[in-house]
Amino acid sequence: MGSDDQVLQALYKLAIKKPFKQVVQDFGRPTLAQVHFRKLITQIDPSITLTDCDRFYQKALIDHKSLVGLTVEILEKLTEKQEKVEVVVSKDDLQTITVIIQNYRAKRLELDRVFKFFDKNRDLSLEEREAKELIEFFHTSITPQEYQSIKKLIGNLKFSCDHLRQLFQQWEQIVDNQNKNPQQQQQIKYTIRPQIEEKKQEEAVAPKPVPVEDVEQQEVKNDEVDFADFLNIDLHITGAKELVQMREELRKSKQVFVDKDFPASVRSLGMKFCQLSWKRMSDIFQNNLKMFNVDDSQDSRVGLGKWISHRDIKQGILGDCYFLSSISTIACRWPEVIKDLFISQRANNEKLYAIRLCLDGEWKVVMLDDFIPVNGQGNPAFSKNAGAEMWVALLEKAWAKMNIDYTDIEGGDPREVIKSITGGPTWIVFTNAADFKQQLQKCSDMKCVMTSGTFGSNPNYTNFGLEPGHAYSLLKVYNVNHPTKGEVTLLKIRNPWGNKEWNGDWSDASSLWTEDFERKEDDGIFFMEIKDFQRYFQAIFVGYFRKEYLYNSIKQMAKRTKTIQYDIDIPNDGEYYFTVHQEALRRYKLNKDIKYEYSYVRILLAKNSGKGEYEFVDQKQQKDIEVHLGGQLTKGKYSVQIKIKWAVPTWNEHEYQFSVYGSEFLRPKQVPRDAELRKAVMLQVARGNKNLQQLTTGLLCAMETVVSKGLGYFYYKNTSQKTFKLKNVLSNKQGVKFLKPEIGDNYLVELAPGEDKIVLCSLDPAGVAFTPKHQLVQ
């Protein structure tokens, strides 16, 4: 079966599960975007690659002349010819089906009643577990092998009652025909099944695998690399409509694109590089120019990895190592992520190129021409590819365009770049943390994007081949068993310069390498033991993403004194992250009137059980470019409360971006703040506090004032049979503010027998101090 046929079969299964109109509406868009198409198809058939999904999607757009995405009408046309698909039933399957149908007829039960009984979650469809129980109801002695064989026939679908009835009717037809012709193997036509070939083709002998740099590349090892002239994009993304319009205008006028918003002039260079001139890449490389060029010299790179690699990246005179180290890490392990950023993936006559980036939490389309800065010899002055490729220089130019000019992208936080490329959450881990090794291993196991940076100054750096204040790509973490050193944790690192490597233990020339552990290559890649890494590197910058995860965001205004609440319905168990994004520091470099810095964000996540009941999930208070909460969450309704204490004194109100990212497409909805939410969830937290202190017989107290959590509490529990009235006065109070209805420096609490209560307070990020004094009041 060809890849297009495989995608079509998956699409047909999707049609069985849910009407296409509902499928499209679930994503809140008038059409099905490419990223959503990928997710749906790979969920149904995980063996289908993202490349096959993209190829099918683009071909469908071209065939049906759509510039906006896959409409409901196109989806229906694609599947209208798939009504009859031949299936061959084996003798073993026939015996199993016969038993099921015989018992079904003997029980004389209406399928509607049977369906309702096994539809335990009342979602009007049978999931695999529910369908399995139904099959076992009609075939009590079915073996696991027989069930798995039948499962291949019915597929991993969620059956509606109509589909179940249709399936049993077809099985009855099989049994009846077999009774009439017992010697003939049955071949019938299903309306819901993909074709099953009568004979399996003999598997070709697999060649001996070539070692690859990363297991992630195995996904693209045998894929035919396919680049699009112009990817279809969601027109709701900022800049998308302008791109489509510009492309049409250039094609009609037969002109080439000149970017007036980021012109080839000093304005785009910045004052530091005003001596440079500009030249089109099409003039520099002429007929050899390509967006991505294949490199067959590296046996360790396979599939798309031969076209897009960390080895493509060579840093120029621009000090943006934080940017290059980030894209180097991603290009090494996830080249398809780099490819998908480029809307135009081939050199074109219009010299119009476009890249998608997630800037300050919002995905945008960045239009570019092919002018780049050059030195006096007419060669690229800044970052470039190793050969006549465009992708590195264009990606760097897009970053410069969205951040004022080239001068202003010198120096920065790698997390900005990782977020802009992946959309996933980012964080930082310092090498002096007591559990650094455990955190590093966890990030490696999660397959996170990781970069690192050396300390700003160290006299030993030059002696050991390192550069102070420099960003490096962290490509891989290895735990090896060395014949003399025993268990060793090694980090594989790359200098974006493409040269100048660490020359200490485990460097290319180190005597620690043996025949089993050999590493000798001068390409900027080197290995370090974890203890040396902690000595010379300050932190690792981490980003977490999954290629199939979906992103959605809302731009909002937040008042300094107001708490904002979002309600979010999560349709299925999965991994989800909720993030508050602030503008990057570099946005205000030229605005001297505003002393911009990141503001503290307080965020609280709870599961809404209904009727005013909440289940605490997590909370945080942090001052950073992004603040996020999340992880593995179960199906249900969730509430997020956010408060931003703007650091700029004149900002009583300012905009921010709130995003949701995870295994399903989510639509957050801003709702009025539930005043009882904080008290309900914090009371839940307090009840789990094991450090209860006895104030008097039968009266217990606990308090928590951890600044990083943002909210603190004073908790009281009456275990006696009498009523207590208690007053608490805080002296020397700093950084603690009681939440309403309590105000000032003291409060009264009255507790009936068996009752517990909580008093909440907000905590100043700068720190808190107080002395509590409890008194019983008559």
Word description of this protein:
This protein has 778 residues and is of the alpha+beta class. The protein has 6 domains: 3-83, Recoverin, domain 1 (Orthogonal Bundle), CATH 1.10.238; 86-190, no CATH class; 240-413, no CATH class; 426-543, Cathepsin B, Chain A, CATH 3.90.70.10; 550-674, Jelly Rolls, CATH 2.60.120.510; 683-776, Immunoglobulin-like (Sandwich), CATH 2.60.40.1180. It is 27% helix and 27% strand. It has a 6-stranded antiparallel β-sheet, with helices on both faces. Strands 19-18-21-16-23 form a 5-stranded antiparallel β-sheet, with helices on one face. A 5-stranded antiparallel β-sheet has the order 24-25-26-30-28. This is Calpain catalytic domain-containing protein.
Write the layout of secondary structure elements.
Layout: H1 3-17, H2 20-25, H3 34-44, H4 50-63, H5 72-79, E1 85-88, H6 91-107, H7 111-118, H8 128-138, H9 144-154, H10 161-180, E2 187-190, H11 240-253, H12 266-269, E3 277-280, H13 281-285, E4 313-314, H14 321-333, H15 335-341, E5 353-359, E6 362-368, E7 371-374, E8 384-385, H16 391-401, H17 414-422, E9 426-430, H18 436-445, E10 449-454, E11 471-482, E12 486-494, E13 525-529, H19 530-536, E14 537-543, E15 550-559, E16 564-570, E17 574-581, E18 600-610, E19 613-623, E20 626-633, E21 636-645, E22 653-662, E23 669-671, H20 677-687, E24 693-696, E25 699-704, E26 711-718, E27 724-734, E28 736-738, E29 746-751, E30 756-763, E31 769-776
Helix pairs in contact: 1-3, 1-5, 3-4, 6-10, 14-15, 14-17
